[in-house]
Specification:
Radius of gyration of chain B: 13 Å
Shape of chain B: globular
Oligomer: heterodimer
Structural class of chain A: mainly beta
Distance between the termini of chain B: 37 Å
Strand content of chain A: over 45%
Number of strands of chain B: 11
Largest sheet of chain B: 7 strands, mixed
Shape of chain A: globular
Largest sheet of chain A: 6 strands, mixed
Order of helices and strands of chain A: EEEEEEEEEEE
Distance between the termini of chain A: 40 Å
Number of strands of chain A: 11
Structural class of chain B: mainly beta
Radius of gyration of chain A: 14 Å
Helix content of chain A: under 10%
Largest interface: A-B, 24 and 26 residues
Helix content of chain B: under 10%
Order of helices and strands of chain B: EEEEEEEEEEE
């Protein structure tokens, strides 16, 4: 019930293309869904996050699509650039009570070919 | 504003030893969480501290412990190290209640030989 499943494990996209990473969760109590980007040797950095009361959130080239009934959410990177090459993690948490505990997907290694 | 800092950045220990890692959160942040990152298991939650109290705990053995000081700085300790404890240990901080975003530090890479 605590799992977040992420796919694909790795993804290669041409420069200018759209990168799509998918995640599915089981626990319907989750109410906060962030995406993190991690470069080698660095800690994860928050990219964008969504709550289940909206179906889509866009920030620049990054968009989260959220399907509450299917318990799925995805990250779309438009006009992908070589600088986007990194590992991406989806996560979920239940914010009730104020406790902070992120459950992460397994990660997707994204490579953008120039 | 300075980000989350972690010390040391790299550490080599041998089996059976113990280790203490340190984390300084972003100024004003009172919640500090710790995560273990390995290639096989990914990012796994260890524990969270808020106002010097452990508020949440992951599924790790008792060899993993932590604490938080009055200035919100946190330490985690691993006793009787095992080879499988080799990992990147990440600390994340977040603002007082109502601010969900967790900001991660660069991590401490621990190698157990």
């Amino acid at each position: 019930q605590q799992q977040v499943k992420q796919s694909p494990q790795s993804l290669i996209v041409q420069k200018g293309g759209i990168s799509i990473i998918n995640c599915a969760y089981e626990n319907t109590a989750f109410d906060y869904f962030p995406w993190y980007q991690q470069f080698p040797g660095k800690g994860p950095a928050l990219l964008i996050a969504i709550r289940p009361d909206v179906s889509e959130k866009k920030e620049g080239r990054f968009t989260i699509s959220f399907n509450k009934s299917a318990k799925q959410f995805s990250l779309h990177i438009m006009d992908s650039q070589p600088g986007d090459s990194a590992t991406y993690f989806c996560a979920a948490s239940r914010q009730g009570g104020g406790a902070q505990k992120l459950v992460f997907g397994q990660g997707t290694r994204l490579t953008i070919n120039p | 504003k300075a980000g989350v800092t972690q010390t040391p950045r790299y550490l080599i220990k041998t089996r059976g030893q113990q280790v203490t890692l340190s984390c300084s959160p972003i100024s004003g942040h009172r919640s500090v969480s710790w995560y273990q990152q390995t290639p096989g298991q990914g990012l796994q939650f260890l524990f969270e501290y808020f106002s010097e109290t452990q508020r949440n705990k992951g599924n790790f053995p008792g060899r993993f412990s932590g604490r938080q000081f009055s200035n919100s700085r946190s330490e985690m300790n691993v006793s009787t190290l095992e080879l499988g404890d080799s990992a990147l240990y990440l600390c994340a901080s977040s603002a007082p209640r109502g601010q969900e975003t967790q900001y991660f530090g660069p991590g401490t890479r621990l190698l157990v030989l």
